[in-house]
Write a structure and sequence with these properties.
By secondary structure, this protein is of the alpha+beta class. The chain contains 22 helices and 7 strands.
């Protein structure tokens, strides 16, 4: 093969890698973490981000799946009407179609992205999409249109003075001119890139521009100028100790010397490349160096040296092939794991839908009961405001309200019994837990109505009697007798109005339920202390402490993640109480509120 032709082929390979639209990532942990976000997909920006990131990770590994994720990102971003996310998603979709080789679809999504970015005044983003379109035409060997879009991107970057991106666009245009043999234009463009890199003190960018100019002069056959620029490139890279890049440059310099018949100088540069490559893991570059060395030995009729370098070439060729096979295996593994994870997500979504349906039914029942309960309290309040002259009528109405409370209590007990009958047929543990929690809350409300019915006054109730009954009821509900859990109560004899006691009872129900279910997991013994005392004229303090494993940091930091914690917070706000949760040798809840 002629030396000049071989040199041009290698340069084209270098250009190909420079133009690769995106780096292929095989970060399995990142893919797994992104798939976890999609286990419960929502119409929000986090879901759009996960779809786009997954698409980018899978490009070059599973291009079809990368395209599917990109289109899902487009769909979600359009639904939530988030134009910046939509512009990004359509850019990613264009890139995904580019990887699939479907140019018309790729061009469509790139242009859709450009329209949105222009509306958003995202000049950098608009320029990036134009550069990608230029790369799309470059691979179709439509160099005129590729240069046209590269120039549009260049002008956009200039308008916002993005100097790093300006230099990148210039290099792309220079490569086009070099392919078209417009050598003078290419040199002018590369000089502009060099001046820009010099201004920004980017030494590596300066060395790349010098190397590109040297290659153009070599194409032109002006070897003296080619040497001048490549030597400057070499000196700059030695100064910044860019050893990896030096190997490629020494290969280029060896080609330059061989083309001129300076075989000794060519051999010196190859030996320099080998001395660096022996200390670095750069198998692909070393493969190219030994291929050049074998060609040089053949030209100088040194067949013994050619045989030795050919053997080394073959050794590196086997190593590179082995690495390529491993990469392919890794790609297949990622594809398999991604599809396997998608199946898990689909199965999980089915279970979640079932649980959500059960939760919705219970939520409706509880909502109706709460509305009924608040209606009763409103009715009691209206009765309390009646004129004292209507004592007889008020008494009759109070008896009526007590009867209503009695019937509500009976209805709640019937509902609780029906739910208990239904929960026996539920096999899913999570769904059973949801029903059990709902039953517990209904029974806590039922106990309030029972106390109202049996109490002589509708205005004030004794919390001591109610709390002790609630504890006994929860013992039965959560089947506590098989554990040795000691509960001590120290409740001050006081009166509370029904509304405050209802809120207090539901808070205490949630706290004790959590303690029974989670505090003593794996333990047969434990203690729960409940106290309620007056600490000042208008302040009552309720404390509930268990000796269990303690509440998790996640629940303390984000207490609204569970229905139980949401109810505790909601009724604490209704009491206008100050709540404090500590996690020292167990969990302690402390509520301070005004009893009046």
């Amino acid at each position: 093969m002629p030396v000049k032709l071989l040199f041009k082929i290698i340069c084209l390979i270098i250009i190909f890698f420079c133009f690769t639209p995106a780096t292929i990532s095989q970060n399995r942990e990142k893919i797994d973490s992104l798939l976890k976000v999609l286990e419960k997909p929502k119409l929000d920006t986090a879901t759009v981000y996960a779809y786009n990131a997954l698409s980018s990770e899978l490009m070059g590994i599973d291009n079809q799946q990368a395209k599917n994720y990109a289109l899902k990102a487009v769909d979600v971003s359009e639904n939530i009407k988030n134009e910046p996310m939509e512009a990004w998603s359509k850019h990613v979709a264009g890139l995904a179609y580019d990887y699939l080789g479907i140019a018309d679809s790729s061009l469509f999504y790139y242009k859709e992205s450009i329209i949105l970015k222009r509306q958003l005044k995202d000049v950098d983003g608009e320029a990036a999409s134009n550069l990608n379109i230029g790369t799309l035409f470059y691979y179709q060997q439509d160099y005129e249109r590729a240069a046209e879009y590269f120039k549009i991107g260049l002008e956009l970057y200039k308008s916002v003075n993005n100097e790093n991106k300006i230099a990148a666009a210039l290099n792309n245009i220079g490569s086009i001119y070099r392919i078209q043999k417009k050598y003078e234009e290419a040199i002018d463009i590369y000089n502009q890139a060099y001046n820009l890199k010099e201004k920004t003190l980017d030494s590596m960018g300066m060395s790349n521009a010098l190397g590109n100019i040297g290659i153009v002069y070599q194409y032109m056959g002006n070897y003296s100028k080619a040497e001048k620029y490549m030597f400057r490139c070499e000196a700059l890279r030695e100064k910044i100790k860019a050893r990896n890049n030096q190997i490629v440059l020494y290969g280029d310099l060896a080609h330059l010397m061989i083309e001129q018949g300076k075989y000794v100088a060519g051999k010196e540069y190859l030996n320099k490349a080998i001395s660096i490559g022996d200390s670095l893991d750069m198998d692909t570059e070393m493969l190219a160096i030994y291929k050049i060395y074998t060609m040089l030995d053949t030209l100088t009729n040194d067949y013994k040296s050619a045989y030795k370098h050919l053997q080394l070439f073959n050794q590196y060729n086997e190593k590179v092939a082995k690495e390529d096979r491993k990469k392919e295996i890794d790609k297949l593994e990622i594809v398999y794991r991604t599809k396997d994870k998608e199946k898990e997500i689909a199965a999980s979504n089915t279970i979640i839908k079932s649980r959500n349906k059960a939760l919705w039914v219970i939520s409706v029942i509880v909502a109706v009961l709460l509305i009924l309960a608040f209606w009763l309290f409103w009715l009691r309040y209206k009765l309390h405001k009646s004129n004292k002259q209507l004592n007889v009528l008020v008494k009759q109405k109070e008896d009526l309200v007590k009867e209503i409370h009695h019937r509500v209590k009976n209805n709640l007990q019937v509902i609780s019994s029906l739910l208990n009958m239904h929960v026996r047929k539920v096999e899913d543990p999570q769904s059973k837990k949801i029903f059990d929690d709902g039953i517990s809350r209904i029974q806590a409300m039922s106990l309030i109505h029972q106390n109202i019915y049996s109490h002589s006054s509708l205005q004030q109730l004794k919390p001591k009697d109610y709390i002790e009954k609630l504890v006994q009821q929860l013992f039965i509900t959560y089947q506590i007798p098989d554990k040795s859990i000691k509960i001590t109560t120290d409740i001050e004899d006081m009166d509370l109005d029904i509304e405050k006691l209802m809120s207090l009872g539901l808070i205490l129900n949630e706290i004790l339920s959590n303690a029974f279910k989670y505090a003593f997991n794996g333990s047969q013994q434990g203690e729960i202390d409940i106290s309620m005392k007056t600490i000042s004229q208008n302040k009552v303090e309720l404390k509930v402490k268990d000796s269990g494993k303690g509440i998790t940091i996640e629940m303390m930091d984000a207490p609204t993640n569970s229905l139980g914690m949401r109810l505790i917070n909601a009724f604490s706000e209704k009491l206008d109480a100050e709540m404090n949760i500590t996690n020292t040798n167990g969990t302690e809840y402390k509520l301070v509120f005004n009893p009046n």
